[in-house]
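Q: I have two molecules that I believe assemble together. Could you output structure tokens for the complex as a whole instead of separate predictions?
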Amino acid sequence: MEAQVLLNGLLIGGVYGIAALGLGLVWGVMSVVNVSHGDMLIFFAYMTWVMVSLQTLPPFLALALLIPVGFLLGMGLYRFLVRHLIRRSEVELMSLVLFFGVSAIIYGIAAYLWGSDFRSLPIPLPTLQIMGVAVPGTRLAAFLIGGGLVLGLLWFFRKTYWGKAIRAVAQSRDAARALGIDPDQVSAVSFGIALAYAGVAGALIAMISPLSPSLGVAYAGRSFAVVVLGGLGNPLGALVAGIVLGLAESMSTLWITFALSPAVAFVLLFLVLIVRPQGLFKPLRSR
Amino acid sequence: MKTVEERPLLIDRRDPARTVNLVLMGAGVVAAFVIALQPLLPGASLVFWFNLMKAIVLALSLNLITGYTGYIDFGHVVFYGLGTYVAGIAIGMLGIGIPVPLWVFIGPLLVAAIAVVVGLPALRLRGAYFAIAMLSFNAATRLIVLNLPRDFAGGAFGIPSPEIYDPHTAYYGMVGLLVVVIVFTVWLGNSRFGVGLKSIRDDEVASSVMGVRTTRYKLAAFGVSAYVAATAGSIDYWFVAFTSNELVFANVVTVEMVAGVFLGGAGTVIGPVLGAGTLYLVRDFLWVRFPYLYLPMFGVVLVIVVLWMPRGIVGFVEDRVPWLRAKLK
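A: Yes, here they are, computed for all two components at once.
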């Protein structure tokens, strides 16, 4: 029983980790707080559902398709909305209000298109039995894809030109510009990467849980908890924090009613914010 | 040393702003009469006017902590929701002996106390962190209230109390609250308390260095703000004699408040009244015809306000009509 609960928490934690990456990246690089991140994740999850259930695409192809789609959406969003904000003072506060509005728009559209019924995908992979513990194949795949992409981002930040440029802009836009890096371009790419990751995370969410538009708030809370715990834009921190959150959520079901388990993320977030708002890991801009 | 205070005349013929002042005051008095007389007029829609007032009161409540103190609160609906539950549990479940018209003003004090307890740690957070802490506080509170014992808080079903259903009297409760909140906000503009809050908004560190007791000021503003929202909730419970988890903790309500405050102009008296009033009218128009459009519409309003008129209608007008500037502050 306990082993099963721990495994469930671990597997879902990998998804929480990748789900939060986009939020932390954008926040860390340009001080823009995307409060609509949860709604974006759920919107991508519904896009997966549409592709798989209505267009009969294989789930993992749908996932791969969402990477370029998310990237282009992110670049577009930056060009049309965020860029106008970034030159002002109080970027963070105004971005909160801006994306609070975006959140209402996305949620409204999702509620209009897909109503408040739960939708779910057919599960593509069988469940394995390992040492008396049931390992759902889809969740295992989701964990591996999520964890793998998180580590991929870590490599990207450390070894590639664009990754280093993103870190430079996160530390100081002005210093980066002095070194010949265009902060505007780098920010656009960061936003693109953030939404590409959100696209993958959305597809993974669609594979592991039934969907309803109101899930956006739950995922916003989880993503913020992971970002705060794991440090702004730190991929490894996000993965670890995601697993911590996943374990906390699933273990809480041993003691409290199942209906309350989404509250765990919120309570954890509230407590972490109050006790240790600087998080457990170094943010992107400090390296 | 005491200096002689300059007292402006009520009517200064050289200053067109005074005329505007009188016009505004006159419009306010007329509006107050129209609103107060609604229940007596034949065929008038009580619900329409009640909800209009409620939207304005909630926007003014958020304005206290967000507009004046500079703390953006994305979970403010929690205090409204708890207000309905304080009334619902006391009246519908426990059947306390205090008369309803009294309890809708006393009960929310409990919610204000909760706000102070939560605010003590939460108001130490700045900017986005506070907004998100409150967003999560609302979500957690909603789930906890939902899972309280059914014979105490009604569970998913909610708490009906048909025996107190009296919309005509409750209507005047909301009129009273609206008047009190507007008077309070006007007083706040020039009071020591209000100036202290605005100094926190503009630069909290400098403000505390200048001797403002920032923690006390923030907690007081947060408590009053929560009390106003909770009283609106309690009176709403009195008006409809029902509360249900899904309705009263919905993020939609926060979106409406935030959009109302920022569309009108945060940190002013007339801004939230104009903003929330305008949005309510548009919403009322859209609600019947395109029910799904109204939430995205609030979102579009927020996006437009942030990108093109960051100080709301009031700031927009101020920039174009300079002599109004002194009046609208």
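A: One point stands out. The two ends of chain A are 41 Å apart (CA to CA).
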